[in-house]
Amino acid sequence: ADAARVLDAVKVYGRGDTEVRALDGVSVDFPAGRFTAVMGPSGSGKSTLLHCAAGLDTLTSGAAFVGGTDLSTLDDRRLTLLRRDRVGFVFQAFNLLPTLTVAENITLPLDLAGRTPDRARFDRLVDTVGLRDRLHHRPGELSGGQQQRVAVARAFVGDPDVVFADEPTGNLDSRSGEEVLRLLGRTARETGRTVVMVTHDPVAAAHADEVVFLADGRLVDRMAAPTADRVL
Ligand code: ADP
Ligand code: ADP
C-alpha cells in the first residue's frame, strides 16, 4: 500500500497583517504499515497538516504525496478521484449526513464511487465499531461517541491505502476509544495501510507506532514506540 509524505510543507492563511503560517516548512513521512500519531499544542498546525496531506486543502509551497503521486500535479477531477478511492478521512466534526441512516452514512463513499459494499467486510467493520444495533438509526439519534464511530467506519469502508483521523477518540469513552485505536493500529500493521491520527491524548498516542510533535507549524520531535508517560 501507499505511504503518505509531505516535503517542505508551508501553509499560509490570509495575508498581510492577518497572515498566519500554519505550517512553516514541515517534512515528514508516514510509512505504509505504520500507525503514526501527530501531537502538539492547539494551533500548532496539526489539522492543517492532515488536511493538506489528504488533499482536502492545498499547500502554499512544498509538496504532499500519496504513494508516488504529488497532489499538486493533479487537476480537480483526479484529486477528487484520489480522495475518493485511496484516502479515508475521519473529521473532528464527523460530517455525517443527518437524513441518512448509519448504514447509509457508512457506505456513502462506496455509493459515490458506484461500488457495491462487500458484505463480509462491512459486517466486520460494523462489529468492530460496535454499531450492529444502530444501523437503521439516524445520526441525530446517536450519542457523540456513536457518531464518531460511524465516521471511523465510513473512513475505512472503501479500504483506502491511507487513513487520516483528526481526534478520532475525542468524544469516546475509554472503552470505545480503545476499540477505535486498536482498529487504527491493526489496520496499519496487519494490512500494511498508512494510518495517521491527530490527538491531544497521551494514552491514545501510546497506541501509535510513532509520535511526531508539531509546535508553531514546525516538526520539533519524533518518538518511536511511545508510552503515555514519555509522551506527556
Ligand atoms: P491545530 O490542529 O494544531 O490546532 P490548526 O492546523 O487548526 O492547528 O491551525 C494552525 C493555525 O492556523 C492556527 O493559528 C489557526 O488559527 C490557523 N488556521 C487554521 N485554519 C485556518 C483558516 N481556514 N483560516 C485562517 N487561519 C486558519
Ligand atoms: P476539522 O473539524 O478537523 O477542522 P472540518 O470538518 O471542519 O474538520 O473540515 C475541515 C475542512 O475540510 C473544511 O475547510 C472543509 O471545507 C473541508 N472538507 C470537509 N469535508 C470535505 C470533503 N469531503 N472533501 C473536501 N473537503 C472537505
From TrEMBL:
Residues 4-232 form the ABC transporter domain. It comes from the Bacteria. GO terms for cellular component: membrane protein complex; plasma membrane. GO terms for molecular function: ATP binding; ATP hydrolysis activity; transmembrane transporter activity. Keywords: ATP-binding, Nucleotide-binding, Transport. Coiled coil: none annotated. This is ABC transporter ATP-binding protein. It comes from Streptomyces gardneri. The chain holds residues 12 to 243 of 298 of the full protein.
